[in-house]
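Input for the complex:
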Amino acid sequence: MQRTTLIEATRLSKTKGKRVLLDDVSLRIDRGDFYALAGNAGSGKTALIRSVVGLAAPTTGNVSIMGVESGARAFRVFERVGFLPADPPVRRGLSVRRDLEVTVMLAGVTDTKAVDRALMLVGLEARAEEHASSLGDDERRLVGIARAIAHSPELLVLDEPTRGLGGVERQRIIALLEKLSVERQVTIVASTRVADGLVDMASRVGVIRGGRLVEEFNREGLRERGREHVEVVVSDPAHAAVVLEEHLGCTDFAVCQERLIRIYLPGTRAAEINAALVAKGVSVTRLAVNTGSLEDLLERLAAEGGADQ
Amino acid sequence: MIGRVLTAELATLRRSPLVWLTILLAVGGSMLARVIAWVAHALERSEIGEFLIFGGIGWSDVALPLALLAYLIATAYLFGRDFDDGSIDFVLTSPVRREYVALVRLTVLTVWVLALALMSWWADAAMRAILATTSFDPGAGIAATTGFTATLAAIATLPLVGWTALRFKGSLPALGIGIAIQGVALFLGDLVFIRALPWFLPVALAAEEAVAWPVAAGAGLLCAAGVLMCLRELRQVDLYE
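Predicted:
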């Protein structure tokens, strides 16, 4: 079955003065995807997300959303797209409810219950009449999420939806996004700095570093990479593979680039692996045990080579 | 689509204290100006009048700068407030044409300024009746014409102030630049070269009994340029520069 592409970025680059915010990023998100964009602060997550929704103009390359080139001409797609900026603002002088009402008014929603429903979903119904500007950062984020979902969009583009939220609120938002993704088939693109529940739920994960999309995984690939394993860099990967199979009885390993082998055995067998390889004349120039948490994996990928920005 | 942009615009404006501030400046300024003019006139007729520096102050000397300030505040707020609080993200990711947002704001601005001018004129008429100043003032007809032409000229220049707010992403830069240029035009109005500045138009028009056609044409061109610049700026605004 052919899948509909909702977001497509092709060779996207953006610079700000001498600073490279995005560097040759290509990305495709299909209907039904839950895409988590993981990266450290300054990695380019926000620049990419704002380029997708047309709030930032790419220096080169192009990006389309719902089949329309992002920017001023793509205004109509926002009847079906919800967006949460990284620092969700609130309108001064308005109550939380009025702030949301203005948003749904602009979106052309006539359902009078839409605002109440959105507030209830994020757990802010009790604070609906308070001044929006009196809310703390975490509550503003909840208002922002309510604003993004109030008009029942098909696609949600969320910039760090769980940042700064406490445990209860974080779980509530993660559960809400899961519900929207699974039950209502809403396509979700959400950026995150850490491997929190968002990454666990995602059907695809992209890791961005220094403005480049350095790795992309599907759910299975991520689990595979996230398992506990021993990483070795050897002089002769082919010979090492034979040693692993014949002398250690291990077939669950992957030979990667630059003579790196990931051996999916417990870390407690690292010494045994090293000894076997060395005994058979394979030089081991690096050996590391990866404990296998998703958080570790993503943090390592996001930080490898250091943050460029 | 324009209807819902207008409704949303009015919903946010209705709760804004800035609306009351502009009314205070325009109406209060007009009333205050009439009182000052009345006091100045009374003192001029007394023996101590010649020693007072504010002798000869007319209504327009006080009311006009305050009214222009109110118009500038209204413009800077209308076009810059979304950048100030960050809600421009929501405006530009709403399913409405960006051109409609700019056009609705220009329309609201025109109505707002005309309403302020009318309120200001009514307040002046009331003060004139209370203080019985008809013996020395230029008359209601001339005052109204002067006020109206100044208002029209101010409206002509205000889209440029709106563009400044969009270009520099905030109300304060627009207000600052607007006040600076209007201030220069008002206080250095006697210098010939100042009359060549477009920002001098409100002052020049207020001073003319009959509006010269080049000035009126210039105001029209300025207004059209400002509107086009606002539309263009909002279309291509980059919020990650």
